[in-house]
Amino acid sequence: MTAEIAILNPHGIALAADSAVTVSFGGNRKIYNSANKLFTLSKYAPVGVMIYGNAEFRGIPWEILIKKYRHELRAKKYQHLKQYSEDFCKFIDANNALFSDGEPVFYRRLRATYIGIRDCIAAGVKDYLEKNKTIDEAETIKIAQKCVGLKAKEIFERNPLPGSKPKRFTEDFQKVAPKVADIVTQVFEKQPLSQASKDELIEIAKVAFWFRAGGSGLIIAGYGEKELFPSCVQIKADNFLTNSLESGEETLLNHGKGAAIIPLAQRDVVDTFLAGIAPDLRSALDTYMHGVFDELPSHIAKGLPDGVQEKDKSEFIEKVKVGLTAVLKTFKNRLGEHIQGQSQPVMTVVGSLPKDELAAMAEALVNLTSFRRRVSTDAETVGGPVDVAVISKWDGFVWIKRKHYFRPELNPNFLANYFNCREDKNETEE
Hints:
The protein has helices at 62-73, 81-94, 105-132, 137-158, 167-188, 195-210, 268-275, 279-301, 310-350, 355-374, 412-416, and strands spanning 3-9, 12-17, 21-25, 28-32, 38-40, 47-53, 56-57, 60-61, 216-222, 231-238, 244-252, 260-265, 387-392, 396-401. It is an alpha+beta fold. It has two domains: 1-259 and 377-430, no CATH class; 279-345. Helix 3 crosses helix 5 and helix 5 crosses helix 6.
């Protein structure tokens, strides 16, 4: 996971991204704090891009795809920012040859988990043969059942499925069940398995399907040639099942809209900062209010005189429910107005911030999210150095803070070669 933010006002756009990346393999996870998520999309135009969620698409890191697109874009410029988004999506669609396997995240991770189980079975059989010289099918099935059971127990304890699952989940899983069965056949081939082991392998797939992780997204931000005010476009990538790209919402500043704050991925801390109330607290408040108001009519009805008939009592309860529903709706509306009132002064100030203050605010909000994770029992999926950049119409893409995996002072050729591209010299700017 990650925490990123884009803050727009008439002066420019501040982009900030943390460096944490979660790597999953064989059902296990490891977090590194050195990932790059913020890049220039063009060497010549004031356009940048941030990635969040899964760090790769169809088996290739987003960083490689972005830099290849930047190389092919060269000095070409577009009149509107949205055209960069559309062109990037076309570039991905047109380069199918780049993607070797193209298997979505769900199937790839499931296959890796099954291969880990298969390796466990092979090791168990090898140990048995060293002690007993021969092994029959029944003993092989026992070893397989033990390996499958241990892995299933580990996964189920870490990611327990709810007792009752929505009908939609069952219907959706049925669509992928044939492919899951194919993967089981491919990985285990002629390995004899008990029915209990086969059932557990399917349950492992259901856990992976329930806790969907693998989707990713990009946000392209900056200016087209004809645009005086900044804008950004979000692109969603369904790495989980379909490996498809979808150009999403565009945020465009104009004379009537002075600022915008766009948190990406883990946005709860930013939402709390803007609204004055945590999203989970607001959700809990909504749930509790509904529960109280559902029970209240029955409690009120208990105070009616003993002589009231059941029919009249039922009608009274229904009228009270109607009245309480209206009260609850009014409460939600007023709460929403209050929250909006809380954020409006902040947005007014953000609309006039100079570029350096935009950058400081973006960095602070990412660091606040990181700190929140550090002092909670959650995994620290936000952390590491924060990369910060500001894009403005005439200054272009300017790095405020940027980490390197090397020492820049020892590699002057890295910066010197940034624009040293022979093919670019004869390019005309469009």
